[in-house]
Design a protein that fits this description.
The complex is a heterodimer of chains A (243) and B (404). With 243 residues, chain A is mainly beta. Helices cover 13% and strands 37% of the residues of chain A. With 404 residues, chain B is mostly beta strands. Classes of the chains: A mainly beta (243), B mainly beta (404).
């Protein structure tokens, strides 16, 4: 159940499509039954809620690609179930260059480039290495500990990527508008954590706690007080760097 | 040279014994050349560019083969061989041949060890495979000299702290090397001074034409006095946008040594070099500086010194398939005592436009203007020392790569 919620939340963040209202073609009996069930659930305090997190930079522009992790403080929601993800290497870049996966997930690292790569991490959350390879990937790597795993290629120093391993009940990434949202969140107390590579070291705490209930959608609006650290160089010809 | 040949043979034996796939690169660069320059220093003259007026027309820019062969997972053999047309002693010859050990990083640190023949980490413009520049055809005065006279034939170790993998903004590296077989380095500075060109002296080749004066076909990569040269340097990279490099080089040669069979002195050469490269939004800005001294002490003559210094500024803008670059060079070679030949001073402007068509074709139009004064032009050739040279080149380059 939690896996489904986690995945739903993630895809909602990625597509940025607003929740669609119920259409009138729903059969009347079903609608009435649903309404009764909702009323009963509301009376008992178990009506699932929704959460929208909006993150803006200090200059008011949206911050896309920020990782949002929602942890249950009172045990009403369990960590998301593990999944299997893929991080490819295309044109001397990790693709995608950011993955968020639940604890226990596995990630496979194919190499779609003609040249060989050597993937490594020396992050405490999961140090590992995949000796020089091209084409067929090694067996998936399993990430059992929450934390940040920073990846590099030992042949191409400019390649960098991140895997955020989380035990959050809900998680995802902000979209181009800086928004991530999730629905179906059981009422309870939650801690919201935010991570972005350009927030590291800027000293600003972005943790928030909040209550979710079924009465009204919960929302967190964050506007950074400090500017982001500069981005790593991107977009230049990778073939330039042989020395 | 015999040792070098044995080293190359041993490297090839090791490479052929491995089953891992090797990456290879091939490129052919042809040029349409227009020049009003003097006969080049590579061609029996004292012109400061690659092609003098006598070489206008269609020329081979460069034919290159590069091979990178993995040996296990953390060692690779790298070989680079090129042909530059009419100037070379051998039709095709090695510019670099070395083994690179690159263990996995641990706790943020990584060591890299190179053994063989390769370039010291000085240049900030010659960053592409084959020690080519993605900005211009002709290298700066500093890098033209490095390509002409310097090659580390020995062992280099670099230790990097990969801070960007630990959440920091920068990486730091220190590098040190011990080398031999490079005692003639410096003879070109005293003979023709700095030049701006894109050839590289090959490991078994020479600079200039045999018998020409004063660039008499020097063979650069020889051991003359048995002493070990060293360099040590530091590199800082900020978010991969800013790269700072500094290096101190000293071949520790005995200036009194002379190899009668080779007919060459050991040139004691030491210099400091520092540079910065900044990249952002398609822009590259590079500044580089070098200052040092080379000297010999022939028996009965005393010590003859040639202090030298050079610097350049390069600005480049890349958008889409287009790259436009502009560089300004200044260079100077003095002599002490001042009656010694080989006093040079000059500056150069390089403007280049590169159009990259897909992954195979690249078209470059470059204009190079060099204005230099060289006392040897009067001493050896009876020419006026002060010369302005203009070299325009249209280069068509086709490159392919793959693995086997």
């Amino acid at each position: 159940m939690s896996r489904t919620r986690g995945l739903k939340a993630r895809s909602a963040g990625g597509s940025a499509s607003p929740p669609r209202p119920l259409r009138p073609r729903v059969p009347l009996l079903v609608a009435l039954a649903a309404g009764m069930a909702a009323l009963l659930a509301g009376a008992s305090g178990a009506f699932a809620g929704s959460l929208t997190v909006t993150i803006l930079r200090h200059d008011g522009k949206p911050l896309p690609g920020a990782v949002v992790m929602v942890h249950s403080l009172d045990g009403t929601s369990k960590p998301s179930a593990p999944l299997r993800a893929v991080m490819d290497q295309v044109d001397l870049k990790f693709t995608p260059d950011l993955l968020v996966v639940p604890v226990g997930s596995t990630v496979v690292f194919p190499n779609s480039d003609r040249t060989a790569h050597e993937v490594y991490s020396f992050s405490p959350a999961h140090p590992f290495q995949l000796p020089l390879y091209r084409g067929k990937p090694y067996p998936p790597v399993r990430f059992d500990k929450p934390g940040l795993v920073t990846l590099g290629c030992n042949i191409h120093d400019f390649m960098i990527a991140y895997i955020v391993v989380t035990d959050a009940a809900f998680y995802g990434e902000t979209d181009a508008a800086g928004v991530w949202s999730a629905s179906g969140i059981p009422p309870g107390q939650y801690r919201v954590e935010v991570w972005h590579p350009r927030l590291v070291g800027n000293g600003e705490s972005l943790e928030r706690t909040l209550s979710v209930d079924g009465a009204a959608p919960a929302a967190i609006d964050i506007r950074l007080k400090k500017s982001l650290r500069p981005a790593m160089l991107d977009g230049h010809m990778a073939s330039w760097d042989a020395y | 040279m015999g040792r070098l040949l044995r080293l190359a043979a041993a490297l090839c034996t090791v490479a052929c014994g491995t089953a891992a796939a090797a990456d290879w690169q091939l490129s052919l660069d042809t040029r349409l050349v227009g020049s009003d320059g003097r006969r080049s220093f590579l061609d029996g003259g004292l012109g400061a560019v690659r092609y003098g007026e006598n070489r206008s027309g269609l020329e081979l820019g460069r034919f290159r083969i590069g091979i990178s062969e993995p040996i296990g997972s953390i060692v690779a053999l790298r070989l680079d061989a090129s042909s530059w047309g009419g100037y070379q002693k051998n039709p095709i010859d090695l510019t670099e041949a070395y083994l690179e050990l690159r263990p996995y990083p641990r706790a943020g640190f990584r060591a890299r060890v190179k053994a063989g023949a390769f370039y010291a980490p000085i240049s900030l413009e010659n960053r592409a495979a084959g020690w080519e520049s993605p900005y211009t055809l002709s290298s700066s005065a500093i890098d033209s000299w490095i390509a002409e006279e310097l090659r580390t034939i020995g062992v280099e170790t670099q230790i990097d702290w990969l801070g960007t993998r630990l959440g920091h903004d920068f990486d730091v590296g220190i590098v040190g090397a011990a080398f031999g077989w490079n005692e003639p380095a410096g003879v070109s500075l005293a003979s023709h001074g700095f030049a701006l060109d894109d050839t590289q002296t090959t490991l078994f080749g020479r600079v200039g034409r045999r018998g020409a004066q004063p660039v008499a076909g020097f063979q650069e990569f020889h051991e003359i006095d048995g002493r070990v040269g060293t360099y040590e340097g530091v590199e800082l990279r900020w978010l991969q946008r800013l790269t700072l490099r500094a290096l101190h080089y000293d071949n520790h040669a005995d200036p009194a040594s002379f190899d009668a069979a080779l007919g060459e002195h050991a040139w004691a050469t030491h210099f400091d070099s520092a540079g910065a490269r900044f990249e952002s939004d398609g822009w590259s800005l590079i500044a580089q500086w070098m200052e040092g001294e080379t000297y010999v002490a022939p028996a009965g003559v005393g010590q003859l010194e040639w202090p030298f210094r050079a610097r350049y500024l390069l600005a480049s803008r890349q958008w889409g398939r287009n790259t436009v670059s502009l560089r300004y060079d200044e260079f100077e070679v003095d002599a002490d005592p001042p009656v010694v030949r080989g006093i040079q001073g000059g500056h150069a402007v390089t403007a280049a436009y590169i159009y990259t068509a897909g992954s195979h074709w690249r078209f470059t139009l470059e204009w190079l203007h060099v204005r230099s004064s060289q006392s040897n032009r009067r001493i050896f050739l009876g020419e006026t020392p002060l010369v302005s040279e203009n070299l325009t080149q249209l280069a068509v380059r086709y490159a392919i790569d793959g693995s086997f």
